[in-house]
Each structure stands twice: as C-alpha cells, then as structure tokens.
Design brief:
- The complex is a heterodimer of chains A (about 280) and B (about 250).
- Chain A has a single domain (about 45-280), classed as Orthogonal Bundle (MetI-like fold), CATH 1.10.3720.
- Chain A has eleven helices and two strands, in the order H-H-E-E-H-H-H-H-H-H-H-H-H.
- Chain A has helices at about 5-35, 45, 60-90, 95-110, 115-125, 135-160, 160-170, 175-205, 205-210, 230-240, 250-280, and strands at about 50, 55.
- In chain A, strands 1-2 form a two-stranded antiparallel ribbon.
- In chain A, helix 3 (about 60-90) packs parallel to helix 6.
- Chain B is α/β, with parallel strands linked by helices.
- Chain B has a domain at about 5-100 and about 170-250: Rossmann fold (3-Layer(aba) Sandwich), CATH 3.40.50.
- Helix content of chain B is about 35%, strand content about 25%.
- Chain B has helices at about 45-50, 80-90, 105-115, 120-130, 135-140, 150-165, 180-195, 210-215, 230-235, 240-250; strands at about 5-15, 20-30, 35-40, 60-70, 75, 90, 170-175, 200-205, 215-220, 225-230.
- In chain B, strands 6-7-8-3-9-10 form a six-stranded mixed sheet, sandwiched between helices.
- The radius of gyration of chain B is 18 Å and the shape is globular.
- Chain B starts with a strand and ends in a 5-residue tail after the last helix.
- Classes of the chains: A mainly alpha (about 280), B alpha/beta (about 250).
- The interface of A and B includes residues 93, 163, 167 and 172 of A.
Chain lengths: ~280, ~250
C-alpha cells in the first residue's frame, strides 16, 4: 500500500470516529433519560398538576406552559424572521446598510440566553408592563429564535435557483408576485425546517423564561396570555436545585426531562415529515 | 419580401460596473422574422438580448445608454412599467427552467400574474400554447403532473409554451437548444420557424448551422461590437468583412 492510500485510510478513520462520537453522545443521553425516566411517566403524570409541594403528581401545567410559550414565540418569530430574510435576500440593495443589519443579526445570535432573559424582564415585563406572563416569556423566546429563523430562511431563499426568478419576471410578473408565487413556495420546506429546529432549541431554554414567563409553582392552567405558567425546563431546574425534597423527586426530574426531550424530538420529526411531504409534492 | 421594423436599438452602450460590454449597437428587427445573433463567447450577444426586455436590471451596478424602441414604446423610459414591456417581449432561457409546479400551472402562470381569472379562458389558452409549442400531444394526459418530470427537450418546449401563453409580440431566445440533444434541438428549430409566422424572434446561438437553418437575418457580434448584419443567406455565403468570414468558416471563435 502506498503512502497516499495510508493517509486516506487514516483520514477516513478519523472522520468516521468523529461521526461515531456524535451518535454515541446522543444515544447515551437518550438511554440515560429513558432508563431513569420512563418509570415516572404515566397517564396521571401527564394529566395532573404537581401535588404535595411538588413531590408527587404530574406535570400537566409545565407541558401546557411550554406549549403556550412556544406558540407565542413561533407566532412572533416566524413572520418577522421570514419577512426580514425576504427583505435582506430579495429586496435590499447589497450595501453598507444591509451589512450592518447582517452584523446585528449575527451578534444577536451570539447573545447569551440569560441576557435575553434580563432584557425580556426589563423591556417586556417592566417597561411594557406585561408582567411575568406567557406573552412576555414567549416574546423573549421568539426574539432569541429570530436570528436562527432569519439565517435558515435566507439560506432557503438563496437555494432557490435564480432561473426561477428570471423566468417569472420574464413573463411579466412583478417582483412581489415572483416572490410570493415562485420563490417562497420553493423555499418553504427549508424555512419551516429551520423555524422548527430553532424553536425546538428554544423549547429547552431556561434562562430566557425564568424571569419573564415561568414561575416556580402554579397548579392552575393559564387562562389568558397575561398569566404566568410553569414550564418544563424551569420545572426540572426547580426540582433539581430548589425542591423541598430533591432526592425524593429524582424520578420526577428524569420523567420531566424525558417528556421535554420527547417534545423536542417530536417537533424535529414533524419538521422532517413536513419537509419530505412538501418536497414530494413539488418533486424537487 | 419587406417587413416593417418591430423593434430597434440605436447607439446602445452597456456597462457592467465600469467595464463596457456593448459599444454603439444599432440594429433593427423586422416584424415576423427570425434574427440570429452569433459570435464567440463573451462577445456581448446575450447581454444585448437581455437589454431588450431589461432583464439586465436584475444585475446590480449595470447601466445602459442609447435607445431601444419597441414600436413606439421607449424601453428605457423611466416612467415605463417594465412589467408591461416584459409582457410584450417574452424570453426563453438557455437552460430549461420550468417552475416546480404542474405542467398546467406552469403555462397558466403568466396569465395568472397578469390578472386573467377566467378559468375557461386559461384552460383554452394553456391548450393553444402547448399546441403552438408542439408539445400538446405529449403532455395532454398529464397536465396535472409536475413539469420537472419531463425530459430536457420537453421542458424547453414547455418553457416556450409558457412564454407564448402571455401572447408576446417579440420572443427572445438565449441559446434555447444548447443544453439539448440533436433530436430535441431539431424540434426546437422547427418550432422557431413555425412561430415566426406570427412572432418576431431574436435568437442567440453558438451554433452557426442553427443560425443558418432558422434565421432570416444574422448579426455577427465580436468584442461587444456589431461587426456585420445581413440577410442570413448573404452573410453566410458572401460576408463583406474578413472578420465575419473567419468566424463563420471556423477559423476562430
């Protein structure tokens, strides 16, 4: 075997190990959570509120709370993010102004989540007088997801062949008609995938919501957008660090973590299924 | 057989940034004739073609000087709605570029964006356009299937049908057969000849036999300049300039 082939073999082995480490890490985490958490999960765990100072009972308010926070986040971040991406990629003249906006977006993506939490507390809860609420927490999460959604949407728009735009404009379509009828439908699978991946990331965040939307304990389900809620990630944090009996609630902690992971996996799976379906429909 | 001028350019210059790509091009396109633009790669023939429906507007930092008239319409008039120009001057591109939609929707697209809502009219014109583009028989049973499932040659004829559906007066074709096999190319060439009965066609081609086969008039471009223009027969048999002769006989380019 000559030198070139040896180098190639070593290279491939390294690449394969890197991929393997990745897969193993995920498998270990999942196995860890499932093996310790599955016993805690039962129908009543999913459908009841916590009882006895959160040492028994279920996590329904946390599930509902997380879903509500996600709902607000997606309702805000998706339209604003996609609109920004369209503006940056399709309309704006590429110049200093756009470069500054891009820089801003990239930096927004790098802001630590706890800073988003503090900003949300100051801006949404206090200045805009929303208080600790689903609305304030959802907006904070949405804001945090925004750079991800803008980024993935821009990538999706860039991947639409320029020839589609030329063909459409050449037929006498306006720029807006071209975007609305040709570019967006082609970019849609990518946009949706990016949006859901960004949100599933945000679903697990604790720092942005601990000051803005989530509370330690409230057994009641929210009645309006201005109610505070319990949320899965914050509940895990509370049980594991500040509960009344940390050791006794261990199974509940693992159970809650497992539910959170399943929720995130579910969203990712949904994104993949949706994308494949649309792709198949368009035969891309 | 004389024919009135459908479109003309006068003293057209074109720049990418500061690099001049076209120099003082004056050219007339007679109605219902096929004009072929030939010349080596980078000679400016595609740039020139894309000036005629202002497709170059899409490329930042380009500018044009001079005059282009479509009958009485000043193509560079700042008050002109470029959408109305492109409705009258259709375009077929080098690579077939059907939308990822059904065959029917591809053809209907131009009518829909131009505000046609009458379903019967749309269906009727979809069929007419597909027939004109000589592809109706091949696709009539699969109008609701994706256009991306067609072969390259079929896709290109679909794109021609799509352009015809908005009933343009001029059709610009930018090397429409260069990505196709010989049989598909032949079909496109036959199509060009039959369409020229009702349309003014301007075609860019690398293939000199193609220019000789389909066009009435041929214009030879070199280095951004119009070198020679004449009836196709004359240009290919008795070119006036040595440069033209060298190119058409394959001595360079």
């Amino acid at each position: 075997m000559n030198r070139r082939n040896i180098v190639q073999t070593i290279g491939f082995v390294l690449l394969r190990s890197a991929a393997l480490i990745n897969g193993t890490a995920l498998a270990v985490i999942v196995w860890f959570m499932v093996s310790r958490g599955w016993r805690a999960i039962s129908w009543s765990f999913l459908t009841q509120a916590p009882t006895d100072s959160m040492t028994r009972g279920g996590i329904l308010p946390c599930i509902v709370g997380t879903v509500c926070l996600m709902g607000i986040a997606v309702a805000v971040a998706l339209p604003v993010g996609v609109a920004s991406a369209i503006y940056l990629n399709e309309y704006a003249a590429q110049g200093t102004f756009v470069r500054i906006i891009r820089l801003g977006i990239n930096n927004l993506a790098g802001v630590p989540s706890v800073v988003f939490g503090l900003f949300g507390l100051a801006f949404f809860c206090i200045i805009l007088k929303m208080g600790v609420s689903i609305l304030a927490g959802g907006l904070t999460l949405g804001l945090m997801t925004l750079p991800v959604i803008i980024g993935t949407s821009e990538e999706a728009l860039k991947s639409v062949p320029q020839t589609y735009r030329e063909a459409s404009l050449g037929l006498g379509a306006t720029k807006w008609q071209t975007i609305y009828r040709v570019v967006l439908p082609s970019a849609f699978p990518g946009i949706i995938t990016g949006g859901i991946l960004g949100l599933s990331r945000a679903a697990g965040e604790t720092a942005p919501i601990m000051y803005t939307g989530a509370v330690f304990f409230t057994p009641d389900l929210p009645g309006s957008l201005f109610d505070a809620v319990m949320a899965l990630p914050y509940h895990i944090y509370v049980l594991a660090t500040a509960g009344t009996n940390i050791a006794a609630t261990r199974p509940l902690q693992y159970g809650t973590a497992l539910v959170l992971i399943l929720l995130v996996f579910g969203m990712n799976l949904g994104a993949i299924i949706l994308r494949t379906r649309i792709r198949k429909k368009m035969r891309l | 057989m004389e024919s009135s001028t459908k479109m003309h350019t006068k003293g057209l210059d074109f720049y990418y940034n500061d690099a001049q790509a076209l120099y003082d091009i004056s050219l007339e396109f007679p109605q219902n004739r096929v004009t072929a633009l030939i010349g080596p790669s980078g000679c400016g023939k595609s740039t020139f073609l894309r000036c005629l429906n202002r497709m170059n507007d899409l490329i930042p930092k380009t500018r044009a000087k001079g005059e282009i008239m479509l009958e009485n319409m000043d193509v560079f008039d700042p008050a002109l709605d470029v959408v109305s120009l492109r409705r009258r001057v259709g375009m077929v591109f080098q690579k077939p570029n059907p939308f990822p939609k059904t065959i029917f929707e591809n053809i209907a697209y131009g009518m829909r964006v131009n505000g046609v809502r009458d379903k019967a009219l749309i269906a009727e014109r979809v069929e007419t356009s597909l027939r004109q583009a000589a592809i109706w028989e091949e696709v009539k049973d699969r109008l609701n299937e994706s256009a991306l499932g067609l072969s390259g040659g079929q896709q290109q004829r679909l794109c021609i049908a799509r352009a015809l559906a908005v009933e343009p007066e001029v059709l610009l074709m930018d090397e429409p057969a260069s990505a196709l096999d010989p049989i598909a190319t032949q079909k496109i060439e036959e199509l060009i000849i039959s369409l020229s009965k009702a349309l003014t066609i301007i075609i860019v081609t690398h293939n000199m036999q193609q220019a000789a086969r389909v066009s009435d008039i041929t214009a030879f471009f070199y280095m951004g300049k119009l070198i020679e223009v004449n009836n196709t027969d004359t240009l290919f048999t008795k070119p006036e300039l040595k440069q033209t002769e060298d190119y058409i006989t394959g001595r360079f380019g």
